[in-house]
TrEMBL record:
GO MF annotation: an example: isomerase activity
EC assignment: 5.3.2.3
Protein name stated in the entry: TDP-4-oxo-6-deoxy-alpha-D-glucose-3, 4-oxoisomerase
Keywords: Isomerase
Gene3D superfamilies assigned to the protein according to its UniProt record, in alphabetical order: Jelly Rolls
The keyword Disulfide bond is annotated on this UniProt entry: no
Cross-referenced Pfam families: FdtA
Claim: Isomerase is one of the keywords in the record: yes
Gene name as annotated: fdtA
Lineage: superkingdom: Bacteria
UniProt cross-references to CDD domains, sorted A to Z: cupin_QdtA-like (cd20292)
Amino acid sequence: SIADCKLIDLPKITDHRGNLTFVEGGNHIPFSIERVYYLYDVPGGAERGGHAHRQLSQLIIAMSGSFDIVLDDGRDKKRIHLNRSYNGLYVCPMIWREMDNFSSGSVCMVLASNRYDESDYYRDYQDYLKALKA
Ligand code: T46
């Protein structure tokens, strides 16, 4: 459920030369990292997401700028604004998510527990709801 999706406060090493944040698979996040991908050059007003994953666990980070993620577990919905590079949103499997409100120049980085597999996606909301009930 969306109650299992948590904002994780990542380590932040502050320094007069600039700040440094790091993420260790299995330590700061409850999975090992098999893939990294990022969204960038997102035009104003764009919406992304609109799917759920069967197996995939993810940590979503606003590396630069900000955006919103709406999490939906078929019962409850929650809108989360991400705007700090030292915060990551942990998203567990079987959560429907939509993303919008991208600021100009924003970069969304995702750390994922598995390689890309289209068969891991529910891209139809009704199919997703059916799978939840099954
Ligand atoms: C998610 C949000 C935050 C690949 O070939 N490899 C990949 O690793 C990924 C992530 C995507 N693709 C292909 C699949 C589609 O043809 O890139 C195209 C766009 O993917 P999608 O429409 O799923 O993009 P988003 O931004 O809606 O969703 C992505 C991730 O798919 C998803 O896991 O949680 O970012």
